[in-house]
Amino acid sequence: MSSATMPAVALEHVSYRYPGTQAGVTDITLDIAPGELVVCLGPSGCGKTT
Question: Which of 15, 26, 32, 34 is 20 to 30 Å from 48 by CA-CA measure?
């Protein structure tokens, strides 16, 4: 990947499970380009902050 196409932020296969309970995030892969705006939408308690 050249520097012109490299993401500013890259998440690959990210997961998080709350201790002793369900997964908050499962296998997220996300590339965010420089200057790109990203928003996480969802109901309360669905894992946005995680």
Answer: 34
Cβ proximity of 33 and 8 under 8 Å: yes
Q: Which two tokens stand for residue 42?
A: 């969802």
For the chain, strand residue ranges (E) read: 9-17, 23-32
Mean pLDDT (whole number) for 35-49: 87
Is a pLDDT exceeding 80 seen at residue 10?
A: yes
- Please tell me the distance from the alpha carbon of residue 46 to that of residue 4, in angstroms, as a whole number: 34
CA-CA distance, 50 to 9, in Å (whole number)?
A: 16
CB distance 32 to 9 below 8 Å: yes
